Amino acid sequence: MNTSVTNTARLLGAGLRALLVLTLVTGVLYPLAVTGVAQGLFPGRANGSEVEANGRVVGSSLIGQAYNLPLKKGQETPAPDLKWFQGRPQNGLGSNSVNTQYELILSGATNRSADNAELVQWIEDAKAAVVKDNSVPGHPVRPSDVPADAVTSSGSGLDPDISPAYAELQAHRVAERNGLPADRVQRLVDEHTEGRTLGFMGEPRVNVLELNIALGKLTAAGR
């Protein structure tokens, strides 16, 4: 009886010591070490890849944002603010979940097949809107000009980047809305076009948030 109690107490003591040691190592020392290394070597990424404008954080370069007009009375879906470059459709064209405005409540894709009738209709509607919104006098947009990323969301629904083709398609509309020369806006797109990672991974891309920050500075300077 005494031996059994002694053994139990010894096992409980060993387990408690192991718990304390592992808690210290994995719950305190390891997180501190990883945080220290990350802050020392990659402070920007460790802090969420924050993007600043006018002295304040306005977002992350890893998460897309919406550029919409304020909701009007009786309006359920906000209209895009066409003086800004627009990103990809939000989370499956905003019909997949509660995350309809990049609110970060939930991330995900539509999970619909390519021949799904509802998805096909969403894409057709989105393409018609892109053609209508971006056609300006002297520079009409044809349905065949619309790239895939202009009418489809990414797998997460939070993609911060668009293709150079989609950015270039919007350039004339953005220039007209802001009273800027089209060639200057196009040059802005070129300046913010990133190539493939390491020269071979992924596709060329344009970060919409960073592009719009530069556009805001250009517009302010032109006034």
List keywords for this structure.
single chain, 223 residues, mainly alpha, 2 domains, three-stranded antiparallel sheet, two-stranded antiparallel ribbon, 5 strands, Potassium-transporting ATPase KdpC subunit, ATP binding, ion transport, membrane, ATP-binding
Our count of helices gives: 6
Helix amount, in percent? 40-55%
Enumerate the spans where pLDDT stays under 50 for 5 or more consecutive residues.
92-100
The major β-sheet equals: 3 strands, antiparallel
Calculate the terminal CA-CA distance, rounded to whole Å. 90 Å
List the helices and strands in order.
Answer: HHEEHEHHEEH
Shape: elongated
Structural class designation: mainly alpha
Strand order of the largest sheet: 3-5-4
Tell me the Rg in angstroms. 25 Å
Family: Belongs to the KdpC family.
Region (Disordered): 135-157
Pfam families: KdpC
GO molecular function: ATP binding; P-type potassium transmembrane transporter activity
Structural write-up:
The chain is mainly α and 223 residues long. The protein has two domains: 2-45; 49-222, no CATH class. Helices cover 46% and strands 7% of the residues. It is built from six helices and five strands, in the order ααββαβααββα. The chain has helices at residues 2-41, 43-46, 117-134, 164-178, 182-191, 208-222; strands spanning 50-53, 56-60, 161-162, 193-194, 205-207. The strands form two sheets. It has a three-stranded antiparallel sheet with strand order 3-5-4. It has a two-stranded antiparallel ribbon with strand order 1-2. Strand 1 and strand 2 form a beta hairpin. Helix 4 packs antiparallel against helix 5. The longest helix has 40 residues, at 2-41. The radius of gyration is 25 Å and the shape is elongated.
